[in-house]
Amino acid sequence: MSTDAATGGRVDVTDDAVDQALSLLESEEMDATESGLRLFVQQGGCAGLSYGMRFEQEPDEDDEITEHDGLRVFVDPASLDYLEGSVLDFEEGLQAEGFHVENPNVVSECGCGESFRT
Hints:
This protein is α+β, with helices and mostly antiparallel strands. Helix content is 17%, strand content 39%.
């Protein structure tokens, strides 16, 4: 995981993740001043919970909104309870490429790392 995180709230985002997300937002022709990346936790996976991410045109009324070097991140209150202190990173490698959440609240993960339990 990259150690350069752009702080701006209770969930941090590394420079690599910011760059990748802004590039994807631009490719979707979304306005980064209004749109953002929603990070959430949902029921599912063999360990019970899994992460989800998607781009949204605007935040919901009760979202926590943080800005990380031009990237707006939206997190709903229920997900924030699970994500407090986490870092969103973007990793490139031979085995896998993509966004990854480093979450200090996780007590166990499934074998593939796709789901977790707190």
